[in-house]
Amino acid sequence: MSKQQLEVIGQDTGCCAGLSTAPLDEDQAADLAKVFKALGDPVRLRLMSLIASRGEGGEVCVCELTPAFELSQPTISHHLKLLRQAGLIDCERRGTWVYYWVRPGVLDRLATFLTGSRTAGAPA
Q1: E strand intervals along the chain
Q2: Contacts of 47 (CB under 8 A, 6+ apart)
Q3: pLDDT beyond 70 at 97
Q4: How far is CA 121 from the centre of its chain?
Q5: What is the full DSSP assignment across 33-51?
Q6: Closest C-alpha to 43, from 96, 81, 85
Q7: Which residues are bridge partners to 60 per DSSP?
């Protein structure tokens, strides 16, 4: 196993530095707490995964999300609303249906925050 360190390029730290590189200020901590609170529910985490699996620029209709759960449509809508309020997803109504997508850069910013300045092969 090589101990060579790899330089990570092309990452924009966006809203905050990685957890291991600098302490959070109050505003950053409050913003991230909303995100992690939204993702802390298994249903919302699954919804986020279903939406994100469409890839960048992909979208999914609520009519495709609801059947994946044994929950009522109003309950699914409530969970989606909390993900929207946390700034993770966005949506657009088209006729009867609402289409959801991951907001650009959200997953990259979370990944950058969580991985910090760790190098490849460093223990988690």
Answers
A1: 60-61, 89-94, 97-102
A2: 65, 76, 79, 80, 83
A3: yes
A4: 24
A5: HHHHHHHTSHHHHHHHHHH
A6: 81
A7: 100
Rounded Cα gap, residues 24 and 19, in angstroms: 8
pTM of the model: 0.73
What is the number of residues in the chain? 124
- Cα 26 from Cα 104, distance rounded (Å): 24
Cα–Cα dist 112/106, whole Å: 10
Q: How far apart are CA 89 and CA 52, in angstroms?
A: 9
- The residue ranking higher by pLDDT, 118 or 91, is 91
User: Which position has the token pair 């966005």?
Assistant: 90
Q: Which letter, b or e, does each residue of 48-70 get, where b requires 16 or more Cβ atoms within 10 Å of its Cβ?
A: beebbeeeeeebbebeebeeeee
Q: Residue 103, class by beta-carbon neighbours within 10 Å (0-12 exposed, 13-18 middle, 19+ buried)?
A: middle
Within 10 Å of residue 81's Cβ, how many Cβ atoms?
12
Dmax (CA) of the chain: 56
For residues 41 and 47, give the distance between their C-alpha atoms in angstroms, rounded to a whole number.
10
